[in-house]
Amino acid sequence: MNYSLATLWHERPRFLPGIMAVAFSAVLIALQCGLLLGLFKITSIPVDNSNAHIWVGSRDVLSVDLGRPVQLSLMARLAVDERVEKVEPYYQAFASWIKPDGGSALVIVIGAELDDGNMGCVNELNQEMRDALTEPNSVVVDRAEFDKLGIQNLGDYAEINKVRVRIVGQTDSLKSLAGPYVFCSRPTAIMLLRNMTPRDTATYFLVRLKKDEDPEQFAADLNQKYEKRRDMDVMTSETFSTRSRVHWLFKTKAGIALGYTALLGLLVGAVVTSQTLYAATAASSKEYAILLAMGIPRRKVTGTVLVQTFWVGLFGIVLAYPLVHALAGLGRLADVQIPLPVELLCIAAVVTLVMSMMAGLVALRSVRKIEPMNLLR
Amino acid sequence: MSFPAEEDDLPALRCVSIVRSFSDGGRSRNVINDVTMDLHSGQITLLMGPSGSGKSTLLAIMSGLLTPDRGQVLARENGRMIDVWRLSPREREQFRLRNCGFIFQGYNLFPALTARQQLEIVLRWGEGTSGREARKRADEMLEVLGLKGKEHKKPAQLSGGEKQRVAIGRALIKRPKYCFADEPTSALDWGSGQVVIDQLQKAAHEYDSTIIVVSHDHRLLEHVDVSYHLDDGRLTETDIPVNRGGEFESWRAGQ
Ligand SMILES: Nc1ncnc2c1ncn2[C@@H]1O[C@H](COP(=O)(O)OP(=O)(O)OP(=O)(O)O)[C@@H](O)[C@H]1O
Ligand SMILES: [Mg+2]
Q1: What span, in angstroms and rounded, lies between the C-alpha atoms of B164 and B136?
Q2: Nearest-ligand number for the alpha carbon of B31
Q3: Inter-chain contact A296–B125, Cβ cutoff 8 Å?
Q4: Over the stretch A220-245, which tens digit does the pLDDT of each residue have?
Q5: In chain B, what are the domains?
Q6: Is the CB of B56 under 6 A from ligand 1?
């Protein structure tokens, strides 16, 4: 309604704090969620950056970095299914890294097949690196982790679980949350992880399905078929990726802390917005009171306040949009990835708008207080 | 006392034995004490009295805003007298929507809205009038009030007298059967005050409205049809100026 907009425009200074509060909440939520998403994307890199349709891991595995060994014999269950084109074992486990100068660090060793058509290698391992990795006890680590791992140059030597390894290559932008990734061949991984991963086990089996087969269906079928055994979990790579991120999101203090901050932002936004609308309505209470005296139903006034609330919310969100992008840009400069997918921005906008409408509902108590009788004095 | 049964002779509004008390400091005090009065359509009735005598309180009771402790407020509708205070709150709100306009000393105009919008809002929110129709009627009303060319002005750009005229326009735009005005001229110089009373007279005559004006201003006396004096919650004197009171007086005399 144009009366609400006219009021908003005429009393800009009065409404500005509310609009700013909404913008603040929206920015905070979008950035927090963006940060979460950025952080937790890291947790599913091994899944997202490889090429399997299906991941098979230990029962109820919570996250890709928490896989427990599964019996190699279970591969047969997969191989006999006619929808399967290829199955390969995959190794991943935490290991202790001794730097060339003696310090130690916790790393995640990832061992996959290296041949053409493999599924487990992250896409960042190019042909040259894969060739180099065929050499026993050679590894590839990410450029960004060199410092943490005490490496100066390619060709340096370090120790993993008491085995001497040589750094033969480097990836770019494959950082990890739990510990640096160390990529190697399957035989090297078996060697390095011999204590955690017994000879007749792997951490995961990766499956490629034949063309046009539905991974969802395949996973559901196998889980149902072997439900009673409770010894493996069959997941599409999407499911496993999400499961890994969600695990980190809910099970880590970091995720909860970030969530709290977003919630706090919402609360602050709601309080300020509510106060703004309350004060604005109270300031016009005499004008509204005349209308009520003339028999205009109170719900018309209520409606106007809610429409004003809506505009306050909308303007706040519109204001937030460039701010979020600017701040995400700043983050990028500081090497912090803050992905802002459209879905996230939409959710942040909707949540903030709902917040401001709730704040408006709270502010409606000022409408209930309007009493035409008070005009007659 | 019996009243003529013919509908045209029924008063537009009749207060019967109104009593209203307020408690102040624990004990209750009668602010309106057994007030009975008739108001007629097409007339301006002036209600005078010292400060604190209960004028505003009486106005609120008559207009359906404040519940009386005792007594009746009877309004003529479709040839019958209905008791405003026996209606349900919802019915009373609708009664006011159909029939009542208000003017107060403070102009109480929305600072953000133009003169035209102040008037439009009454029609659009009250009667659901279309935007175009509301605009047309608002502009007509403003022209009658001598505010042509000021339709776009906001209250901050209008003089006190102009603001009060907009407030009158807001009260009269729906052509209410009753218009209640509490001190409509007290903040204005006499020139502006005269414009206000002229407009109210016009409304009384043109729309056959019943207009009640509460005021301290003795200069209004010669512009109204009937005046009452309220003292400590009681009506003390009724003055019916000769220029208009003839019919009423003769009817009274005939009782
Ligand atoms: N809500 C209330 N509670 C208690 N006392 C009230 C209330 N409203 C009015 N009164 C008292 O009733 C008396 C009459 O008030 P009212 O406003 O009707 O006077 P008035 O004749 O309009 O005076 P003025 O000319 O100053 O406007 C006053 O003494 C006032 O203190
Ligand atoms: Mg008064």
Answers
A1: 21
A2: 1
A3: yes
A4: 999 999 999 889 999 999 899 988 98
A5: 13-110+177-253 (3.40.50.300)
A6: yes
